[in-house]
Each structure stands twice: as C-alpha cells, then as structure tokens.
Amino acid sequence: DTEVTQTPKHLVMGMTNKKSLKCEQHMGHRAMYWYKQKAKKPPELMFVYSYEKLSINESVPSRFSPECPNSSLLNLHLHALQPEDSALYLCASSRLNEQFFGPGTRLTVL
Amino acid sequence: GESVGLHLPTLSVQEGDNSIINCAYSNSASDYFIWYKQESGKGPQFIIDIRSNMDKRQGQRVTVLLNKTVKHLSLQIAATQPGDSAVYFCAENFRAGGTSYGKLTFGQGTILTVHP
Questions:
Q1: Do B99 and A50 touch (CB under 8 A)?
Q2: CB A101 to CB B109 under 8 A?
Q3: Is 90 exceeded by the pLDDT of residue B101?
Q4: Cβ contacts of A73 within 8 Å, gap of 6 or more
Q5: Which of A16, A33, A86, A96 counts the highest number of beta carbons within 10 A?
Q6: Distances (CA, A) of A53 to A48, A74, B100, B112
Q7: Shortest CB distance from A98 goes to which of B49, B89, B107?
Q8: CA nearest B90: which of B48, B52, B51, B58?
C-alpha cells in the first residue's frame, strides 16, 4: 500500500459545528503532516507529528486540534471554525525526506 | 523569512514541445528539493527529487537541475503531453539533524497548459 487516504472528500460545516478530518497511511512512515491549501496558493504547513508526538505547530489557531492515535492515523478536529478556514486540507506522510500527499478534504465553512 | 519562488506563474506549450519550469530558493541550508504536480481537485503528486549534493537528476521524461551557486531549480519535461497540464510546485526541504521529518516550503506554483 503506497498511498495516503483522507476522509471525507468534502465537508460543509457551520461555525458552531464540531467535525473531524481523518488521514491514514500504511507505508510505515513515522512522520505525518497536516497542510492547508487555499485556492491558487501553495500548501502551507500546519502540524507535524513524528513518532506519534506533535513536533511542529505552525502557530495554528486552537480551533484546529490535531491528534495522532497511532502510527497509521492522523486526525484533525475542527471546532468553531470561521468562513476563512474554508480550504483544501491535505495530509502527508514521510519516512525521511519524500512526503506523500493524500487527495485532501475540501472544507467549506458557512 | 526563507522562501521559494517561481519566475513564471503560467506556461503554455504545444503538445510534443519540451517544457521548462523554473524556481528560485533562498534557504542555503535546504538539503533536498522536490517537484510536485497538482491536478485540479487532487493532492500534490511527487514527480522527482534531488539532493543538494547533486546538480542533475533524470526520471521518465523529466529532469531536475539544481544550481546551488545561484539557488535555482528547474524542471524539464520532455515531449509534453496534454496529461501534463497541471500546477507544478517546487518545494525545498530542511530536515534538522536527528529528526525523522522534514519541513517543506513550497514555491508559488506554475500553471502548465499543454495544447493538443
């Protein structure tokens, strides 16, 4: 298995909702990442997990809460989001340098 | 701060032509560079990479050139096909010693359009 999967593909939520994005990989990678990508812009790093521990938080607002339950799974919990948080959320994993990306979750906040 | 940028935001070519996409980077400590292809509605797809101790690497129809003197990276696509139409991002990776992860910084992207 050489892919990163993400669910759901699309998500529409209100500003008072709580939702979660999920990411899974079975390549044995010990580093996993969350990126945010706005339209016509490059991906921007949000969080890095290494060996299931949070290693980097790029000053992301607390309404985004990452979780790494085990070495294959990565979640992003969402609460009280703003319309400007609407974007494509990408998950990636890596062994060392080469990062493999999932297809992303297209999030719309109403 | 450190950044990776592209000279040309769009590139239009005819099918069969060779394409060259350029990228400038500024972090001299970056040790690994990657080109990604992103099609509409999809995540970035790895194309080719190069380490900082190399100046050229070839793949299938693609070649990456690295000029550390001027901090310049390029992606050459031979015999470009309509299926190559996408946004292309360069990314520089910095991995601190002893860590298992890298920190990618992406360039702004180039839109490649291939006309039949």
A1: yes
A2: no
A3: no
A4: A22, A23, A24
A5: A33
A6: 8, 11, 12, 38
A7: B49
A8: B48
